[in-house]
Write a structure and sequence with these properties.
The complex is a heterodimer of chains A (about 550) and B (about 230).
Chain A lengths: L2 H14 L10 H20 L1 H39 L18 H12 L2 H6 L2 H8 L9 H15 L1 H20 L11 H4 L6 H37 L5 H20 L3 H25 L2 H17 L1 H5 L10 H4 L1 H22 L5 H33 L4 H7 L4 H7 L4 H31 L8 H59 L3 E2 L8 E4 L12 E5 L4 H5 L1
Antiparallel strand pairs in A: 2-3
Helix pairs in contact in A: 2-10, 2-21, 3-8, 3-16, 3-17, 3-21, 4-16, 4-17, 6-7, 6-17, 6-18, 7-8, 7-13, 7-17, 8-16, 8-17, 8-21, 10-11, 10-16, 10-20, 10-21, 11-20, 11-21, 12-20, 13-17, 16-20, 16-21, 19-20, 20-21
Chain B lengths: L1 H8 L3 E7 L3 E12 L3 E4 L10 E4 L14 E3 L1 E9 L4 E6 L5 E2 L16 E6 L11 E12 L5 E5 L11 E4 L4 E9 L2 H7 L15 E5 H10 L10
Antiparallel strand pairs in B: 1-2, 1-4, 2-3, 3-7, 4-6, 6-7, 9-10, 9-12, 10-11, 11-14, 12-13, 13-14
Classes of the chains: A mainly alpha (about 550), B mainly beta (about 230).
Chain lengths: ~550, ~230
C-alpha cells in the first residue's frame, strides 16, 4: 500500500480535471472512515427505536469497565506534558532553529483562547456546577461543602487535564510536521516507532481511528449546541424543544456552514469567529458586573486554591470506595469527549504555533486557556450558585429538568435578559458554524493523507456528514447517545494517545541527540594521501604531513 | 550527555588542510553546517584560499589509531569570509552525499556564563596526531571584543589544531560558537580577532570562540538558511 504514490497519482489525476471534481484523498482512510460513519448513521436510522437502549448499555459498559483507564490516561498525559515543559527538550523550536512565529505572542494567546472557547462552555457553564451542587458524590448535597466540591469538579473537568491532552496532540502534530517534514496527520506522530510503515496499514488504521474519533467528538459538540439553540429559541420565542425542531436546526446551521465552505469565506469565518469571541467576552463581562461581582471574585481565588489543594486526590479519584456510578456520566464522559475531540483542537493549535519553542508552546496551551476557562466557569457557575444558595433559587430545578435551558434561566435573573439570551443563542450558532467549518477541515486534512489544503468539495462532504451524525445521534437517543459516541470512540484513541507520548519523546530524543553527520566517502573521487612516517614530533606551526601517494583505491576496487 | 554530543558532532568535524601538490599540510578544524557541503571555520586559517581541502575521518567506538594511514582530501572553496569576526564559510567542491542532523545550530542567547560547553577539534593535527579531541568547559564570560565581536570565553586550554572547531552548548547540544584561539589579552585587544601572525598561546587556561550568529549570517546571505537565528 504505497499510499504516497497513490496520493501523487490522485493529485496528478485531479489536476487533469477541472472544477469541483478535483479530489485529493487517501483512498483507504477516506473510504473506510466514511463507510464506518455512514454505516453508523444508517443503522441508527433503521433501528431507531432500539438505539436508545443500546447506547445506554454501551455507555454503561465502556465507562464501567474502562473508567479507570480514562482516568489513568489523562493523568499520565498531564505528567508527560509537565515533564516536557521542564525537561531537556523544552528549547526545541517548532519549525527548527531560526523559525519565526507567524503570529505575535498576544495574537497567538487569543487564538489558543478561542480554541478553548466552545459550545461546551455555554452548555455546561451554568449546568455543571449546579448539577454537582444538588447531586454531589463527595459531599452532602445542597451544603456549603457541596458548592465548593461542585466548583472543584467543574475545574477538574475543564482544567489542566484537557489542555495537557490538547498540548500533547498539538505538539506532536506540530513537531513531526514542522521539524521532521512529515504529513500533517496523526500517523506521522508514530514515525519513531514504525518508521516508513506509517505509510502502510498501521498508519491507515491510526488515521481512520483519528477520523472517526474527531467526527464523533465534533458531532457531540454540535449535538449539544443544537439543544442549546433550541432551548434558547424556546426561551425567546416559545418554539418547542423537540427532536424534530432540532433536526431542522441542524439542517439549517449545517447548510450555513456548508455555504460558508463553498463560498470560501475563510476571511469571513475568521472575522465572525473573532467577533464571536468578543461577544462571548462581553457576555462574560456582563454577568460578572451585573451578577454578584464580589462573590465571583472571591470564588475565583478560592476555587483555584481548592483545585490546587485537592488536585492529586480528585484527579485520580475513581469512586472505588463509594461504589457509585456518578463518575461514569461526568468525569469519564468528559475524558472520552476531550480525547475524541483532541485531534480537532490539536491540529488547530499546531497550525498556529509554528516557530514557538516547546516551552512557550506548553506554557501557552496549558495555562492560558485553563485560566480563561476557570474565569468563565466561576463567573457563570458561581452566579448560579449564588442565586441558588442566597437568592431566589430555581436554577437547580431547571437544570434537573433540562440542562440546556439553565443558561437562559440564569440570564433571566438579570436585567436585559432578552438581549443577553439573544446574544447567547447567536454565540452558540456561530460556534456551531465555525466548529463545523473547521472540524470538516481537520477531518479533510487527515483523510487527504495530510495535505494541509485539500479541495473544497471534500470539506463540503465532511461538513454534511457532521450534520448527519449529529442528527442521527439526537434521533437515536439525545444526550446519552452523544455521550456514548464520545466515550466509545475515545477509548481506542486513548491507547493511541499513550503511544503518542512515547513516540513524541523518542522523536525529540532522535531529533536532538541521535542524529549525526554523515559523509558518503565511497563517493569520493580524487587522490588519496598517505602519512609519511616521521620520528620527529614538531612542536608548533604548520607542517606537511600527508604525502600524495595515488593509492588508486577506487581503481583497485574495480 | 557529553558522550551524546561527542557522538553527534564528531563526524561533522573535519581537518582543514592545504593541498601543496604532492602533500597536504594541516591547518586546523572545520565543521559541517549544511547538507549541501557547507562548512564553517575560522577565517584566519583561510587567508590563502588556494588549495584548501578538508579531510574527513571515520569514527568507531573502538580505540582509534593515532595516525590515519590513508586519507581522502576534498577540495573546498571559500564562499565568504567575515574577517572582522574571523569566520569563513566553505563549500566542498565535489558532489557528495552529506547528512546533517535536523537540529544543531543554536544561538548564544541561550548560553549564560557558567553554562557547560564542549569543544571539539583536531588539537594535535600539527603534531601528526589525527584524533578528534573533545573538551569539557564552562562559559567563563561573554564579552565584546574591541571590534564589537561577540566572544564566548571558556575555561579549557586551547591547542593549535582546535582553531575553527565547534563550541557546543551542552544543555541543548547546539553549536553556539566557532573556536578561534587561546584568550591572550594583549593579542586580542590589539588585533581584534584578525591576525595572520598568531603568537604562540600563552599559558592561560582560557580559550575563546566567536558567536555562531556571525556564521549564520554568512549562511543566510548565501541563501542556505532562512533566517539568521534570533538576531
Amino acid at each position: 500500500m504505497a499510499s504516497g504514490n497513490e496520493n501523487n497519482n490522485m493529485e496528478q489525476n485531479g489536476e487533469e480535471h477541472s472544477g469541483w471534481l478535483k479530489l485529493d484523498i487517501h483512498p483507504w482512510v477516506f473510504f473506510i472512515s466514511a463507510g464506518l460513519i455512514l454505516l453508523f448513521v444508517i443503522l441508527t436510522l433503521v433501528f431507531e427505536s432500539h438505539m436508545d437502549n443500546l447506547f445506554t448499555t454501551i455507555q454503561d459498559g465502556v465507562s464501567y469497565y474502562g473508567g479507570w483507564f480514562f482516568v489513568a490516561t489523562m493523568n499520565i498525559i498531564l505528567i508527560f506534558i509537565i515533564s516536557m515543559l521542564l525537561g531537556r527538550f523544552s528549547n526545541i523550536r517548532l519549525g527548527g532553529e531560526g523559525a519565526v512565529p507567524e503570529f505575535s505572542t498576544l495574537g497567538w494567546y487569543a487564538m489558543l483562547f478561542s480554541a478553548g472557547m466552545g459550545i461546551g462552555l455555554l452548555f455546561y457553564g451554568v449546568a455543571e456546577p449546579m448539577f454537582h451542587y444538588i447531586a454531589s458524590p463527595l459531599a452532602e448535597p445542597g451544603t456549603v461543602e457541596a458548592a465548593r466540591t461542585a466548583m472543584d469538579f467543574t475545574f477538574l473537568h475543564w482544567g489542566l487535564h484537557p489542555w495537557a491532552l490538547y498540548s500533547l496532540v498539538g505538539l506532536s502534530l506540530a513537531f513531526f510536521a514542522f521539524n521532521r517534514n512529515l504529513p500533517l496527520s496523526i500517523r506521522s506522530v508514530f514515525y519513531p516507532i514504525f518508521g516508513e510503515r506509517i505509510y502502510g496499514t498501521i498508519g491507515n488504521v491510526i488515521d481512520i481511528m483519528a477520523t472517526v474519533a474527531t467526527m464523533f467528538g465534533v458531532a457531540t459538540s454540535l449535538g449539544l449546541g443544537v439543544q442549546q439553540v433550541n432551548a434558547g429559541l424556546d426561551h425567546l420565542l416559545g418554539i418547542p424543544q423537540t427532536p424534530m425542531v432540532q433536526l431542522v436546526l441542524i439542517a439549517l446551521i449545517t447548510a450555513a456552514a456548508t455555504w460558508s465552505v463553498v463560498r470560501g469565506l475563510e476571511g469571513g469565518i475568521k472575522l465572525l469567529s473573532q467577533l464571536n469571541i468578543v461577544v462571548a467576552g462581553s457576555l462574560l463581562l456582563f454577568v460578572l458586573l451585573v451578577g454578584p461581582t464580589l462573590f465571583i471574585l472571591n470564588a475565583l481565588v478560592e476555587n483555584i486554591g481548592y483545585y490546587i489543594q485537592n488536585f492529586p486526590a480528585l484527579s485520580t479519584w475513581n469512586e472505588t470506595y463509594e461504589n457509585t456510578e456518578w463518575q461514569n456520566g461526568w468525569t469519564v464522559f468528559y475524558w472520552g469527549w476531550w480525547i475524541s475531540w483532541s485531534p480537532f483542537v490539536g491540529m488547530f493549535i499546531a497550525r498556529v504555533s509554528y516557530g514557538r519553542t516547546v516551552r512557550e508552546f506548553i506554557k501557552g496551551v496549558l495555562f492560558i486557556p485553563t485560566l480563561v476557562t476557570f474565569i468563565w466557569m466561576t463567573t457563570f457557575g458561581n452566579s448560579a450558585l449564588n442565586i441558588e444558595m442566597f437568592g431566589a433559587g430555581g436554577i437547580a430545578k431547571a437544570v434537573q429538568e433540562n440542562i440546556p435551558v439553565s443558561l437562559f434561566v440564569l440570564l433571566g435573573n438579570y436585567p436585559l435578559d432578552t438581549i443577553t439570551a439573544t446574544l447567547a443563542v447567536a454565540v452558540v450558532i456561530t460556534f456551531f458554524v465555525t466548529s463545523s467549518d473547521s472540524g470538516s477541515l481537520v477531518i479533510d486534512i487527515i483523510t487527504a493523507g495530510g495535505n494541509p489544503e485539500p479541495p473544497v468539495i471534500q470539506r463540503i462532504f465532511w461538513a454534511i456528514m457532521e450534520g448527519l451524525v449529529a442528527a442521527a445521534l439526537l434521533v437515536g437517543g439525545g444526550l446519552v447517545a452523544l455521550q456514548t459516541a464520545a466515550i466509545t470512540t475515545g477509548l481506542p484513541f486513548a491507547i493511541i494517545l499513550l503511544g503518542m507520548c512515547y513516540a513524541l519523546h523518542r522523536g525529540m530524543a532522535d531529533y536532538r541527540e541521535a542524529q549525526t553527520f554523515s559523509v558518503a566517502l565511497d563517493q569520493y573521487e580524487g587522490r588519496e594521501y598517505k602519512t609519511r612516517a616521521t620520528r620527529t614530533m614538531p612542536t608548533f606551526g604548520r607542517r606537511t604531513f600527508w604525502i600524495n601517494t595515488d593509492l588508486g583505491r577506487r581503481d583497485r576496487k574495480k | 550527555m557529553l558522550q551524546i554530543i561527542s557522538h553527534k558532532f564528531r563526524s561533522g568535524c573535519m581537518m582543514l588542510g592545504r593541498d601543496l601538490g604532492d602533500s597536504v599540510a594541516f591547518l586546523g578544524t572545520a565543521f559541517l553546517v549544511h547538507g549541501q557541503g557547507y562548512l564553517l571555520t575560522a577565517a584566519h586559517l583561510t587567508e590563502n584560499e588556494t588549495g584548501l581541502v578538508i579531510i574527513p575521518s571515520t569514527f568507531s567506538e573502538e580505540f582509534a589509531p593515532l595516525i590515519l594511514d590513508r586519507v581522502a582530501a576534498m577540495a573546498v572553496n571559500v564562499i565568504s569570509r567575515d574577517v572582522q569576526r574571523d569566520i569563513a564559510l566553505l563549500k566542498i567542491e565535489q558532489e557528495i552525499d552529506i547528512g546533517v542532523p535536523d537540529d544543531f545550530l543554536g544561538s548564544t542567547e541561550a548560553v549564560r556564563p557558567g553554562a557547560s560547553v564542549m569543544s571539539l577539534g583536531y588539537s594535535f593535527g600539527h603534531h601528526q596526531i589525527h584524533a578528534l579531541l573533545g573538551y569539557n568547559a564552562v562559559v567563563s564570560a561573554k564579552i565584546l571584543s574591541s571590534n564589537e565581536s561577540r566572544l564566548i570565553l571558556f575555561d579549557s586550554a586551547f591547542h593549535e589544531g582546535d582553531r575553527g572547531g565547534p563550541l557546543v552548548h551542552v544543555a541543548d547540544s547546539h553549536i553556539v560558537g566557532i573556536v578561534t584561539g587561546r584568550f591572550e589579552p594583549s593579542t586580542i585587544s590589539q588585533q581584534a580577532g584578525v591576525s595572520t601572525e598568531r603568537l604562540e598561546p600563552r599559558e592561560t587556561n582560557v580559550s575563546y570562540a566567536v558567536a555562531i550568529e556571525y556564521g549564520l549570517e554568512l549562511m543566510a546571505s548565501e541563501g542556505i538558511m532562512q533566517t539568521a537565528g534570533t538576531m
